[in-house]
Amino acid sequence: MPIRNLMAVLAACCIVLPVNVLASLKLPETIKVNPAALDAEPICDPKISPSWRKAQVIEGVKIEASEICSPDNPHLIAAVVKGTNNISMATLMETDLSPDTIIKTDDIDGDGDPDRIVIKLEVIELNGRTPDFEGVIPTFDIAPGIQPGAWVFAPKTSGMSTENFESIRANSLLRLPSPVIRVEVGDIVQIVLENTHYFPHTIHLHGVDHPFSHHEYGSGKHGNDGVTQTSEINLMPGERRVYEFQPRQAGTMFYHCHVQTHTHLAMGLAGMIIVEENRPNNWLQTLNVGGGHVRHPSVAVKEQYDMEYDLHYHAMDKELTSIIQKYNDPRLIAREMNRRYDLTDSTEDYYTLNGLSFPYTLRESMIIVEPDQKIKLRMLNSGGEFMAVHTHGHKATITHYDGVEQNPAAQITRDVFDMAPAQRLDLLLNTANDGLHSYGAGAWLFHDHREKGITTDGMSEGGSMSMIAYKSYLDDIGLPKVAHGIDLSVYFTKEYYERRLPIWQDLDEAGSLGAPGVRSGMDAETQETVTNLIIGFIIGLLIYIVFARKQHIKGAAAVIVSKLKGSKGSKTNE
């Protein structure tokens, strides 16, 4: 090939290379997700009647108003206060409770309230695999589209596990977390566990004053501490067991399964148990099923506080919870959980407050306040890691650790509250606007300050975060009126937690932080390959030219050297 042709090819390659590089620097178009294409949910649960939010009296039980958009069923509250044996059939039919779920009898001390309490619980599986069709049943979403497998203690129900024959959604009693149990100092309490599950289970009364053995039941053959390694045998499927206690100390306690605790507790078999101070005519809200607001607080609480909230924090490992969604054979589930699952390698993926993750926490578990109030917060961490709960705009006072009241001189006021696994804290939230206890009205966030605690399966915003919201900052449906045009509705979509929605696409008109589209022309891998080929070709061509014109190059070099020597000699003669 004539050298001039080779030089032409070399020049063409030198032109193509920078053009190819420039093409790779061209940015793709921005693609915006159309909000109309999202699988958006109503912000409030449409199956909950707005009338439930009102203050009302049912069966003689005074039920406080609830400002949140998805409050608890007031008929259920009346039933658990009076006992299912002391209400009308019309009220019972509104609750899905069995007629013997809560039996209240015998005013032993003559102070106007029942002192013998029988509570019946079942073990229920949520979001588990079924052989009947693809999918899980009964479903319980902790956030839009998020359905981890779970087990819970649930009040004994009278009907189906689903809402009806056409729905696969769990009925309102079957949900995370296991319900809060409330009794009074001196009550003779029996918790009857009916094991409706395929695995053995027990109940351990953590922190609750109870005897080691229950000699009144089964001729003393059964323990009363729930620990299968030391105090009792496993409660097998289809069996029932009575746990009896008569507490002598008030406080915020804990109950949970103590069979294979490293998995059963993490799967959701845990709840708060609260022992209230003994007061006359003290009819307690024996179960708090759902949101944290206690709408019928105890006499002792009302002596010091304007409102009371139960805040149960829990966390779950996706690897663990998915086991019951992969298998329907109890033998395979037992193998995976008891012998193959390694807790020491686990990571927590789902963080919940009262069984839900943000944004559903805004439906149920906001703390609604007004200025100059005193609010009692009872907190439990049933997860496997430390927490650091931070209250924006407020500093609360720790009054109790693990159900034990602290000396007033030793009570600490702060805005970050450490909770170890299984630990309970009682807080006094004072909304006096003094720059210490409260900074004033607003919609103030409160959340776990470990940053993963505000994620759901790694996606933020999510997790257990909620708000301390003043009534003046609530809209008509009970959601916070957030500032600066922030739209909360985007979080109520499955696409957000499936990572299909660019979270900043609407920050400006240009959509400068939207999703990048597909590049036109060659993709990055092809561009790199072509560039390397061109560079290699240029280098090879240069080497060929050097060898092909070797004699010419040598002659030219000799001429140049000769001229340089001649020039140097001329300068020397001068």
UniProtKB/TrEMBL annotation:
Protein name (record): Multicopper oxidase
Coiled coil ranges: none
Keywords for this protein: Copper, Membrane, Metal-binding, Oxidoreductase, Transmembrane, Transmembrane helix
Residue intervals passing through the bilayer: 529-547
Domain Plastocyanin-like: 176-278, 335-434
Origin organism lineage: Bacteria, Pseudomonadati, Pseudomonadota, Betaproteobacteria, Nitrosomonadales
GO MF terms held by the record: copper ion binding; oxidoreductase activity
InterPro entries, alphabetized: Cu-oxidase-like_N, Cu-oxidase_2nd, Cu-oxidase_fam, Cu_oxidase_Cu_BS, Cupredoxin
